[in-house]
Design a protein that fits this description.
Layout lengths: L10 H36 L7 E2 L2 E2 H25 L10
Antiparallel strand pairs: 1-2
Helix pairs in contact: 1-2
Keywords: Membrane, Transmembrane, Transmembrane helix
Protein name: DUF997 domain-containing protein
InterPro entries: DUF997
Length: 94
């Protein structure tokens, strides 16, 4: 087991991973609130629509409430992984 003096400094790595976690959890919560909130409200109001409004062959509320957030989350995740995430170098243990 390494002593305190032999342990590498993980401060930068920890702070970066914490930042990344808050961004991802924040996006997850935002998308979840949108899907559940918009989907539940729009689905019940679309129940009485005649004819049912569609976008790309699916009900409009499904397109806006589920497919759009899915696409936004996927594009954001791609950007996040390629541009935002950083690999912090770790010091080697002597």
């Amino acid at each position: 087991m390494a002593t305190v003096k032999q342990r590498p400094d993980t401060g930068d790595s920890y702070r970066q991973s914490k930042r990344e976690m808050f961004v991802m959890v924040g996006l997850w919560m935002l998308m979840g609130i949108w899907v559940i909130g918009y989907g539940s409200q729009a689905a019940y109001s679309a129940e009485n629509e005649t004819p049912l409004r569609t976008v790309l062959g699916m009900p409009r509320w499904v397109f806006i409430g589920w497919l759009c957030p899915l696409l936004v989350a996927n594009v954001f995740t791609l950007w996040f992984c390629l541009r935002f995430m950083k690999d912090e170098p770790m010091e080697s243990v002597p």
